Amino acid sequence: EHLESLEQHFSAEGRAAAEEAYAVIGKEINLGSPKQLQVVLFDELDTAAERTVLIRDVPKAGHDPGDCLTSSRPSLLDCMFTPVERSTLLGDVPHPGVVEVPHGRRVADLVGGADRTVLLGGYHGRWTKAGDLLVDRAALRARGATWGAGVVAVLPGATCPVGEVARVARWLAGESAGQCGPCVFGLDSLASDVEGLAANAPVDLSRLSRRLGLVRGRGACAHPDGAVGFLASALTAFADDVAVHATGRGCGRPTLGVLPTGAER
Fold this sequence. Notes:
Layout: H1 2-25, H2 34-44, H3 67-70, H4 76-80, E1 84-91, E2 97-102, H5 107-111, E3 117-120, E4 126-129, H6 137-142, E5 151-154, H7 161-174, H8 181-198, H9 205-215, H10 223-237, H11 239-246
Parallel strand pairs: 1-5
Antiparallel strand pairs: 1-2, 3-4, 3-5
């Protein structure tokens, strides 16, 4: 009976949304036809050519088929035309994989809580607390974060965060085009320092901080800046773990390779 009630409710919502769409369009069309929607949205209505959530895409939006129906939005029609970002969710998140996330959704909803430390923007991104951050590029930039490539990652408690960051640091150093000193020598030195931390070797943290500053803004391309942003934010986000490793004791956790670098293949 409950399922039948839900079916009737959603069917009614769908019919109402279709009627609203027809009213906006000025005629009835097959809303399940990408071709007809393309003509109406981009040719007839001159809608901005950006990726949108269509009715058939709603179940992908954060993996919650009823999200648009149960949210504070006034109608399903709003959900049909809400711009989205494609995101890859990695690590200790409720629904790992590739999803389409509506603009304005809370990052905390994607990662399972506002208090979680999250990597936003991939390996040229930043580590930060999910807090009240929203999936909105301009809003994230204003907060010193970035959506970047759309990669969102959370490390599980079982892995060593310093070791995970060290693996990525070495991979970033290896991705250099070899055209300028800050990239060739700077990223290699930074990777060696973080690898030393992960191995519980004596590392001068103040020297590491200075090296980060020396590399930032001096590359021929944006690769060194992206790598420095990733590393500097990681040292802050995982400051307690960094401090323990700097003593030579280490955290006692293995590095599980949660953050992929291609070495797994």
